[in-house]
Every structure is written in C-alpha cells, then in structure tokens.
Amino acid sequence: MSVFTPVSESELTGWLKRYAVGELVRLEPIAAGIENTNYFVDTTQGRFVLTLFERLSAADLPFYLDFMSHLARHGIPAPAPLADLSNTLLSTLNGKPAALVTRLPGRSLEHPDADACASLGALLARMHLAARSFPGYAENPRGQRWWARAAVAVRPFLDAPRSTELDAELAFHATQRFPDLPRAAVHADLFRDNALFEGDRISGVIDFYFAGVDCLMYDVAVCANDWCLRDPKTDARFDDARLAAFLAAYAAVRQPGPEELAAWAGMLRAAALRFWLSRLYDLYLPRPGMLVHAHDPEHFRRLLALRAAPGGAPWPVS
Q: Are residues 160 and 289 in the same domain?
C-alpha cells in the first residue's frame, strides 16, 4: 500500500472541522498509486478522497486543483476539489499539503474492450477541447527536462545493452521538436486505473497530479500505449480493434491535423520513454514509505522497442 504519511481518525476528525462536510464515518487507505498518500473518506454528508501530496509543493498545487475544477465545470467527470470554510482548496495535514475532492463512482477496467477504448477516446477529446480554454500553465513534470535528469540518475543501475538503448532513444528525441502542434493542459497519466466505469459509461477520470501543458497528441499516445495493447502484462503490441476504436472515437470529436498525424510515431515513442524512465527511477531510487509498490520497468522497455521499430506506430483512421 502506498501510504507515506499515516493519518489517524482523530487527526482527520480535527482537520475536517474546517470543511462543511459533516462528521467522519470511515477512513480507508487507498492502495493504488505511488506518488501521493490517498484515503477514502466517508462523512455524514458525502464520500470524498483525501490526498496528502508527497512530491508537489503547496506552490505547485493550484494548477492541478484549478485544472480539475475547470474540467468538472465543463462536464468532464473529474474530481471537484472542495473549498474549506475559508474558501481555499488547499491546506496542511500532518505537515503535508492536503486537499479533499469529491469521490467519483465506478471502478477501473483491467481489460478494456474496444467499446471501452472508444468511450475513452471520445472523453479524452472532450477533455482536450475543454482544456484549450484553461488559462493555467505548468510544464509537463515528466517532460524532456525530467528525462535528462532521470537518465543520469538511473544510468548506474543499467547494464550495457539497456544503457545503449536509453542513449539512442534520448538522441532520437533530441531531434524532435513540435512547436506548432496544438497544446494545452493534459492529464499525461490516463492509464486504465485512472478511469472509472459504470457499465459502459466513463464515470470518472482521476489522479491529475502529473498533468502539465504539452502536445495534445502526447496525451493520446499515453492512453494508446496502455489501453490498446493485446495484453497489458505480457504483449505490448497494439490490439488493432482497440486502437482503431480509440482513435476513431477521438477523431470524431477532435480531428487531429496533418502535422499531428505526422508526429504520431514520435509521440508514441515519447510516451513509452517517459514511463520506462519513471519505472526505472521508482525501482532503483524509491522514496522511503510504507509498503510502496514499484511497477516493472521492463514492460515499457519492450513497448518502446516496438514503437521505435518500423511500422510499429500506425494511425488506423482514414
């Protein structure tokens, strides 16, 4: 369980007095995630999620909270941050910045089918259209500047073949510049476990704390690399039906321009590299915490090799 900062019921009861949410009924740690401490919080007036931020500072957080609020106001099923009685969205609990947001219904899908991928594609396009009017700015926290720092940090742990692979991929991306592609605030981490479904409807998109301003197509690539695989654990090749359904549904709401389609192969590689590096970093340089779960970096190394191969990055939308 990824809990870095324990919170007791008595501590939370005192903290909740600053909100008009009633009395605490239940406090439950959330096992998912490796960056923040999260709890389900039930009160006499509703169901919420408490997040204590382990990586982001209080100065960084308004971008993320404002972005979620913006999307929720535009009909996207994003968690809505709650303002406390002093009308602020952020406070401090046990020495960490903390926020309370609405808890969205539904559950994530471990094996989404083509219909689920189509639902995601349509919702992602709606998110991107809504994000174009969001005025906030924050650099993608796992963009190319971070890649360079992370590569230096993990290199001592890599064998020669993997170090060579990493160098080659970084050299490729050093030549890739897309100043004219449409950009906005993007989720940048919308994996299967960050979308909730009720039946065939997406009822929630969660965990926006890797969001930042980047190319919209990068966000599409992050989703494709997780949702549209033949098997998310054993086979990183694309499932043609899932990929086609996802991209067709996205394009029906927001049609990418020719320059975006030309950049698609590079975006898939960028998305794969970002998660290979972050998995390596989490494995070899973990933050001290309680029962922290680190994902296997080899999955994204194999995925990256497939995306970098000739013909490994189709856009099957006419």
A: yes
Report the CATH number at residue 189: 3.90.1200.10
pLDDT at 168 over 80: yes
What would the two tokens of residue 117 be?
């991928």
- Which residues span the domain enclosing 24? 9-102
62: helix, strand or coil: helix
Q: What angle do helix axes 240-253 and 114-131 make, rounded to 10 degrees?
A: 30
CA 35 to chain centre: 11
pLDDT at 286 over 90: no
CATH, residue 68? 3.30.200.20
Q: For the chain, what is the mean pLDDT? A: 93
Q: In terms of C-beta density within 10 A (0-12 exposed, 13-18 middle, 19 or more buried), how is residue 152 classed? A: exposed
Mode of pairing for the β-strands spanning 195-198 and 201-205: antiparallel
| 274 in Cβ contact with 301 (< 8 Å) | no
